[in-house]
Amino acid sequence: MAVPDDSSEREQQHKALYDKARSLWLSPSTEKDLDEVETILRTIWASRSSIEQHDDEVEGPHPPPPTKRSKKEFDSCSVMGQTGSRLALWLIQSNRVSEADEILQQLSFQCRLSSRVLRSEVNEKQSTSSTVKKGMPRDIPCRVYDRFLSDADLNHLLSVFGDIESSYWMDHNYSVEPPSPYFSYLIPLKALDNFGFLGSLITRLKTCLMEWQPLLRSCSQVEMWAHNRPAATGHQLHFDTDNEGYDSTVRHPLMTCILYLTEVGGPSLVTNQRKSSRYPADKGWLSHSAVGRMTALDGRVLHCVLPGQATTNQTRRITLMLAFWRRIKVRGDDKESTAGAARKFPTDNRDWARRLREPTLASTPPTDWSPTQDKADPEPLDHVFENLSGEPWPISSGLPSYDCVFQGI
């Protein structure tokens, strides 16, 4: 007599537990909530052995092979797969890397971001100060400037992006988990005088970065998008591309600038890997979240946002991105209701757009700001990826499959 298959009920129970753990992880009220996160994840993960044992006991003329169920259960989209990945990140951020690597092996990962990278926020305070300057080589693919935004600039930008229930986020049905579709807007550089505060901010960026990237003078459009995410979330490794790379020809911006409006969450990771690279990145640089900081990166390189540490501080990681393009296709029009990539900047009375185009305000730096004195060094990394023994991923092994690289996301 065949044993009833209760996998669906078990999956629902695990899903409810997983959702509770994830909610506590992203929005904990007390330290006790954080302790409960690990307890719940371990409870779900520990049940995998009983799942495999149950499969072995199934009777009938053609019982499924023991590995069939476990492979499905450990799929990255399954509750068990998500649980294992979350538990592995939790362990790495708690400096229990060997235990995490055992889990990642069971999930069929080949390598991961280095433990130093995934634990980078632990040491972030040493990198959010620009008082120590070691003179980074000029060929690194990013630049960092502290205090680029004045208090007045920050207050105005936070009036647009600071509240997750403000018009910018609500108009686009913005969500982090599950992620909402990507949306961005284009500002023509020849018309910056018509964009008030936002136009003056873009002018300041261009002026500051022209020495590093003289080709900025050849750009025609600036693409704008933003994020407002819980501090413990991140964004996967990616290249900035026109229309998210869906076109037959992949094009990158000349430069992408990140403006940090809050100081929480994981750092930005910039690597030396490009779309055409035959080998994975062997060098990287970290720029930690700091209020008013600006990080500019070569638009061709692989980068990401690392997940921050879970914290009872409910402040969210809020950033504004502005990418300079030599050419990019404008999609849709300013009246189109569907959000998407590279839309024309709205000219109607949407609150967020009106605030950004405020004609009576101009972006100004702090009175004592200097591009020389306030230039900060990103934190250098001697390697980016490691195998599941904690050793640097050998260049001779080539590029691993994207899905086989654990990013903590």
Automatic annotation (TrEMBL):
<feature type="compositionally biased region" description="Basic and acidic residues">
    <location>
        <begin position="345"/>
        <end position="358"/>
    </location>
</feature>
<feature type="region of interest" description="Disordered">
    <location>
        <begin position="336"/>
        <end position="382"/>
    </location>
</feature>
<feature type="region of interest" description="Disordered">
    <location>
        <begin position="51"/>
        <end position="74"/>
    </location>
</feature>
<feature type="compositionally biased region" description="Polar residues">
    <location>
        <begin position="361"/>
        <end position="373"/>
    </location>
</feature>
<protein>
    <submittedName>
        <fullName>Uncharacterized protein</fullName>
    </submittedName>
</protein>
